[in-house]
Specification:
The protein has about 325 residues and is mainly α. The protein folds into two domains: about 1-190 and about 295-325, Rossmann fold; about 210-290, Tyrosyl-Transfer RNA Synthetase, CATH 1.10.240. It has helices spanning about 1-5, 25-35, 50, 60-75, 90-100, 105-110, 115-120, 125-130, 130-140, 155-170, 215-220, 240-250, 255-260, 265-295, 295-325; strands at about 10-15, 40-45, 80-85, 145-150, 180-185. The strands form two sheets. A three-stranded parallel β-sheet has the order 1-2-3. β1, α2 (about 25-35) and β2 (about 40-45) form a beta-alpha-beta unit. The chain is elongated, with a radius of gyration of 22 Å.
Length: about 325
């Protein structure tokens, strides 16, 4: 009884290999995932099946999958504490998605934010994007996930998984699936991009976390500012550069606030300070990433080990699901 009481809850999260990791990703979510690995039995996967909805180039997808693996190991995912794997290594997820499709209606899927956004933009939607929430539900439910860390704008993904679990349990009259709970990631505040909008690849306004010093310098120097001269007082709350100082300045932040309010700090100086602090913060992670990149076999072994654990759980779960649905297996 005591052992069951102390058993860690299952946490699951997925990363789509659709682009480079940027400052907004790190402070908005990844940093918190790294902290959570201490308290949960964690399963983190690279969502390469999800990526095929938009990345339809085999070489690019393979490359980006391994790049994402390097990124997340470098920022602190610990393979001794996290089962880190590639989605496609858990074959049962695709089988479960089909089963869920058979109890899901089209009007229900038409409520999904991603689908509605695409339709609003008059985009032609592929079936993969339309069915995206059900594949995600399968990812979550096949691992008996208790908690899913998401941003507030992604809460609907967990709601789809919960609805699907409840519907399956009701139809087949058995409590087969655990109902997952969202953990809404604490808002660091919107991480601003170089144009003052939310940092996002879709806005092309990011500062890449593992960009070279020159790329980081160029991005920071391009941050939009107002026209106030050096001696004029400036409002830190309205400054796009200062919004990033809050993430990197540490104990020096009060000094920067004082110079902003008194006047005497120009935006060029402010950006130069930010560049120095940003590069200093990133360097240990970048060094670790460079070391990992020299040993791709190690990275692949981490993914294989994580995939083995995740798939063994999925196989056991699918046997229960198949029996519940009435699927007859005549071959081993």
């Amino acid at each position: 009884m005591e052992k069951e009481k102390n058993k860690k809850k299952i946490l699951l999260s997925g990363i789509k290999p659709s682009g480079v990791l940027h400052i907004g990703n790190y402070f908005g979510a990844v940093q918190q995932w790294v902290k959570m690995q201490e308290d949960y039995e964690s399963y983190v996967f690279i969502a390469n099946y999800h990526a095929i909805t938009s990345v339809q180039d085999a070489e690019r997808l393979r490359y980006q999958t391994l790049e994402v693996a390097l990124d997340y190991l470098a920022v602190g995912l610990n393979p001794d504490k996290v089962n880190f794997f590639v989605q496609s290594d858990v074959l049962e997820v695709a089988e479960l998605t089909w089963i869920f499709n058979c109890i899901t209606t089209m009007p229900y899927l038409m409520r999904a934010h991603a689908y509605k956004d695409a339709v609003a933009k008059n985009e032609e939607v592929n079936v993969g994007l339309f069915d995206y929430p059900i594949l995600m539900a399968a990812d979550i439910l096949i691992q008996d996930t208790n908690v899913v860390p998401v941003g507030a704008d992604q809460k609907q993904h967990v709601e789809y998984a919960r609805d699907t679990a409840e519907k399956f349990n009701h139809i087949f009259k058995k409590e087969i699936f655990t109902l997952p709970q969202p953990i809404i990631l604490s808002e660091t505040g919107v991480i601003k991009g170089v144009d003052g909008r939310k940092m996002s690849k879709s806005y092309n306004n990011i500062i890449p976390l593992f960009g070279s010093d020159e790329i980081i310098k160029k991005a920071v120097m391009s941050i939009s500012t107002d026209s106030k001269v050096v001696d004029e007082p400036k409002d830190p709350k309205k400054c796009n550069v200062f919004a990033l100082h809050k993430l990197f300045a540490g104990e020096n932040l009060p000094k920067i606030i004082e110079k902003y309010k008194k006047g005497g700090m120009g935006y060029k100086e402010s950006k130069e300070i930010l560049i120095e602090n940003m590069i200093s913060f990133i360097k240990p992670m970048r060094d670790k990433r460079e070391d990992l990149a020299k040993n791709p076999d190690y990275v692949l072994e981490v993914l294989r080990k994580g995939g083995t654990v995740a798939r063994e759980r999925a196989i056991k779960k699918m046997k229960i699901i198949q029996e519940c649905v009435g699927i007859i297996k005549t071959l081993n």
